[in-house]
Amino acid sequence: MEFYYGLAQIVGVHTLLGLSAYIVLLTGQVTMAQAAFFGIGAYVAGMLTVLAGWHIVPALGASAVMGSATACAVGFPALRVKGLMLVVATLAFGEGVRLFFFNFDYQIARGDLKLGPVGSEGFRQIRYFPEHGWTTGEVMLFIWVFVVLVMAVLWWFDRSRYGSVLRAVGEDELAAQSVGINLTAVKVSAMTIGGAIAGLGGGIFAHYTTHIEHSNFNVLVATFAIAYPIVGGLSNVFGTLAAVIFVQAFLIEGLRDLGDWRNLLFGALIVLAMNLRPHGLFGKRRGSSHA
Amino acid sequence: MLELRRAARYFGGVRAVDGLDLTVAEGQIFGLIGPNGSGKSTAVNVITGLFPLTSGEILFQNESLAALPTHRRLQLGIARTFQNIRLFGQLTVWQNLWVAQNSPEDRARRSFFARWLGGEKGVRAEISQLLEFSGLSARQDELAANLSFGEQRRLELARALATKPKLLLLDEPAAGMNSEEIGHLRERIIKLRERGVTILLVEHVMELVMGVTDRIAVLNFGQKIAEGTPAQVQNDPAVKKAYLGGA
Q: Looking at the structure, do residues B96 and B201 belong to the same domain, yes or no?
């Protein structure tokens, strides 16, 4: 049972990571910065609970705020460019953040122990859950409360006018600004919300792994962040969840017995899935576009 | 209402619009015609702000538009349709109109407090009226991409109207339409004028232009070569030369 609880924790955190990219992808922007916001959230929440002794919930709130503030600040200059240029710009930002954590030392002596992040060794002993006697099952439930909450909010966004505006910008920026939509405001707001979700996810990630380091927030993680909503489809939030389950539970855990063959199959199955369901696992069949 | 003063837009060495003077009075249906590549669409794009002016000035209700981005110009009341239809294909017909309601009045009605006082209800009622005006009521839940060509053209016009324009720029609204559809379009344009919308009609289809406009300007190579009533323009030798070539 512990194994499944652990798997559900991973699925939950990766769902948050995927959803943080989902809302940005709705506006047609491909961002490679989500791993950076995820990392910022992880370090902020970890430092607050370990070094400042905060309760986990306000610490996660702070990581969401830091994630969104960074995303907003990055959004203004970055969203002036589009397409591949935006990919490169956000990639550069993401690597910058990773290298910052690679060199980030901030230790405090606590008795015999020195606590806090130490550059390339990372940040060990983020032991809020074990110290407070949380079981794996409780941690899993805690994580899923946030996942369900975020999914519900995004679901509501999708059905609101704001959701339609995001999709309108994603479809045709020229037409969107010609009907009075402020592109900068819409894109930056989506980026800011995505940053908050990634920050929250990172904060949770730091606490269930108990040890984070710069390589947890590299380009591969940024790629996963956008791969989930793309594989799952942008019709609704459940596509992202389905893609995370497909990748994390089936491809990574389910095929573990295959050893090295897994890596080969991993790529092949994603290609197959995208061919069989070009609009994503949960994508609706949509009309031919001659508009 | 709209005034272009020596407006110019160059693309490298190409003078797409070259020192254009144009005055559209309130309530007019103003035609802008000219051969292919004469700068008509560029003129529309500089008026809406998609392209900045190279030089010159654009005034709308006696205020300079130069510093305003496209979405701010729309809020002043300048809306448009596109020559090659640009709908939000993966949104429904209804949603296409919903996202276009960005007039200051609608923004106020959608503010936090007004929403609870029934503002949103009024906004929705207006979408229904627009759908009726465009003959799209039965298709409101269809994805815009699944509409027929004629329906897409009607939806694009309806979407521009959803922004509550004072000045509507129609960029070749009759392109690809048959004569029955053109007849319906003409009726809609005349109804719009009765509601007080000023219209700048950029068009190739003479059947439509000559029938509805009050005044016409003719462009060639980015410059105005003639202006007047439809009858005056039709008999202008410079216009004949531009269209037919030769002497």
A: no
